[in-house]
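Reading a protein record of the kind used here takes only a little practice. An example makes this concrete, so a full record is given next.
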Amino acid sequence: MSVCTTEEQKAQIIAAVDLLAAQATELALNIHANPELSFEEVNSAAALIAPLRAAGFEIEEELGGLPTAFRATYDSGKPGPVIALLAEYDALVNLGHACGHNLIGTASVTAALALKQVSQFLTGRLEVIGTPAEEEGGGKIILSDKGIFDDADAVMMFHPRDKTMVVRGGLACVDAVFKFYGKAAHAASAPQNGISALDAVIHTFNGINALRQLFTDDVRVHGIITDGGSATNIVPAYSEAKFLMRADTVKGLAAVKQKVFDAARGAALMTGARLEIEEGLTYAERNNNLTLAGFFQQNLEAIGVEVVPPPLKGGIGSSDIGNVSQITAAIHPYIRIGDVLPHTPEFAVAAGSEAGLQGMLQAAKALAMTALDLCQDDTKLRAVREEFSNWQSKQ
């Protein structure tokens, strides 16, 4: 009996993704047309689970106690690595899928379905992990803290973008809500009796703006007023603002957070308002596994996708994949879907376009082929794990 070469096995994976293209397109467009916000992705999660269940994957719902998180597992029954493909599927407020999560989740599911069709070549265990609330709430952080990724030898996903890049950094970030409690008064006849919670918010913005010249280049602080009062002739008794703080590392972020919090505390002291701070989960910086990214690039290039180097500086956001990358070897490559940037109306259009769907299928092929590399080649798997172990020993 003849044995298939790795190239022949990958050719079968490519053919399997091509056969799944119509199903994947329908799935991605369905999620795109019905956007759901963080932790509310009931229909999106169910849509991603359905083809995996039909293909014989073992399904765990409400993973880690999160109603819209899931894990779909195929165990080959042969010794080998645990490879996790991550699915995202939450949308943005007022913008829908302007970050392309409909493509991300569908690409991972399609890659897993293609691998299942060539299961005779697999070793170890293949998982698709549905990770809700990347935009607001840090689903991967919660799952990481619950130990969901502890057994994974490699974790992979892709993200649509305006460039195809296999390595790109990610800033550490944390959000906070500042709630100021003042005292209402008639703004014309008795303003002296009031304490303006809105003034406390405005002073907070001013204090943060005064700090900007002192921040290092990696730092970003951006905020919005979420409650500024109810009427112009009433001194606002309550006002609220939400800020997002970013820095290169969690350690650097801690110093930035302290300064921003002190600005809010100073504003409360100046105005006499009482301050409450609600701090969100901390998104860690991204630790890209360069070895794994290199294998992914080779597979992209094998299907004719050109990869470009990332910019030397700037243009970096944040994602909770950073927390996963602190636990195990992980990659978060980008694939071009047009001349558009995430979190814009134009990107939402691109996420449902032919170019977006093509990028999704390219990602599915490269994800599946890279998973096969780790299943078939102990040398490659060992190199990935050694890089992560070396990084971990330096932390």
Q: What stands out?
A: The chain has eleven helices and twelve strands. The longest helix spans residues 6-33. The chain has a mean pLDDT of 96.
